[in-house]
Amino acid sequence: MTYSLDQFWRLVQGANALHPEAFQAIETHANGTLLAIAVIVLAGLSQSIGQAIVLFLNQVKPIRFVLSLGIAALLFAFSAAFWMLSVWGVSHLLYGVDVSFLKVFRVLGLAYAPLLWSFLVAIPYLGVPLNVVLSVWSLLAFVRGFSVVTELDRWQVLGSALLGWVVFQIMQRTVGRPAIALGHWVSNSVAGAPLITNLRQLEQTVQSSFTKGSDNSSGPSQ
Description:
This protein is an all-alpha fold and 222 residues long.
């Protein structure tokens, strides 16, 4: 167990440092698929923690809080898998990439490693800039990893990522709309309160809560 955790964190550190060896290692690792799933789910959990701070401020019951985090992480993982599928399909059609989706999933799953820090987006005033930094960092990891598994150059990788994102967005807004609506409904129902996914709105909510708390603590005593 300790050995597996050590391997996991070495791969995460390698991906964060954009080392190609990390992506080569997970591509051929016996448990590479499970490790990639772990990275994606933990990244989704980290992101949901940052966004669900509003539930904590609203004093949501612990069981609802935990369930909402778990569901948000799973929805994030499904979204990531469909985006990877879009990128894989685009690269196959455009550049004739003949690599199994499983290998692509492993490598791109590891590219989500920088998003393990996503819980930091709840920091007032720094949430949006940090989100931009983490997104760019993850994109760089994606470019590095996808170029390793497909042997495409960086511009071809970026082209695949961009067109894959476009395809993914189109799918979300057409055939995927009912699934997205269902996911939002389940998340909000389990949480017992609307989840905030817009970072600017999240920052405003957190700042407002801290301001009210400060005003109450500094107000005149009766």
